[in-house]
Write a structure and sequence with these properties.
Shape: globular
Strand content: 15-25%
Helix content: 25-40%
Strand order of the largest sheet: 3-2-1-4-5
Distance between the termini: 34 Å
Number of strands: 5
């Protein structure tokens, strides 16, 4: 079998819901028992761009209208599309993706009974920023501004809560936010 001359390089990011939990008070909640989890968090949307292409792709819970109408928190379609996309990548590039995005997507893949993704080369820009440089902050927004690459989109107040309450416009706003993070 001939080796590919150019690896498939994928820039990607996800946005997840909050993790709703029940607590008696806000103060002194250093530890929350797992039995207080009201619902598992889910992937609201995912964005990606292939190296060499200008188009930024996205998938969200809105993209399967029947599933969304039945349960706006059902991320099965998002995970299936993302699974297919990640399966085509030889290299993935993300910010804090090794610690969060990839591990969380792998968790959702396991929960949904999909085949595990094959190992790929991962480049985590957060790790690189932290290990190789001494930026004042390693957050994506700061790095984008500092390096004149752009900045994160400002979100409207309560965006994550509005998404969790099933507001379609909020999910659409989240997709735009997600796509800018990929850019």
């Amino acid at each position: 079998m001939a080796k590919k001359s150019n690896p498939s390089i994928l820039y990607w990011d996800i946005e997840t819901s909050l993790l709703p939990v029940a607590v008696f008070q806000l103060a002194h909640n250093d530890w929350i028992d797992p039995s207080a989890i009201l619902e598992e968090r889910y992937v609201i949307c995912a964005g990606w761009k292939w190296d060499g292409e200008s188009r930024i792709h996205a998938v969200s819970t809105l993209d399967d209208p029947k599933r969304y109408k039945k349960n706006p928190h059902d991320d099965k379609h998002v995970i299936e599309v993302l699974h297919d996309t990640l399966s085509k990548a030889d290299v993935i590039i993300h910010h804090n993706g090794d610690s969060f995005d990839k591990r969380y997507v792998d968790t959702r893949i396991l929960k949904l009974g999909l085949p595990a993704l094959a190992p790929v080369t991962s480049i985590d820009t957060y790790k690189i920023a932290k290990q190789k440089f001494l930026f004042a902050s390693n957050k994506l927004d700061y790095l984008g501004k500092f390096l004149d690459l752009g900045e994160k989109i400002k979100t409207t107040p309560g965006l994550w809560m509005r998404v969790m309450q099933g507001e379609k416009a909020a999910v659409s706003e989240m997709v735009a936010y997600n796509k800018q993070d990929v850019a």
